[in-house]
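Hi there, hope your week has been kind to you so far. It would help a lot if you went through both lines with me. No rush at all, and the record is pasted right below:

***
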Amino acid sequence: MPIPLYGFLQGDTIGLLILAEENDTLQTLARKLQDAASLRVAGRKQVRVVYNHKTMDTAITVAQAGLQALDRFDVIAG
């Protein structure tokens, strides 16, 4: 079942609702956010995912990171 999350991409002016799967990696989640914001912000290959004020390992899954419905995550250059 998809998990709705609020994603904020560095350089964008709005937050976006992104649907994630529990087994999506945070790298996949970052790519989904960048794809959704691609009309306003150019994508980057090197990014960091921040959740609860902590930079997360992008190789872990949404479930391993502890993200739950309507949580916020940020994608920043890195």
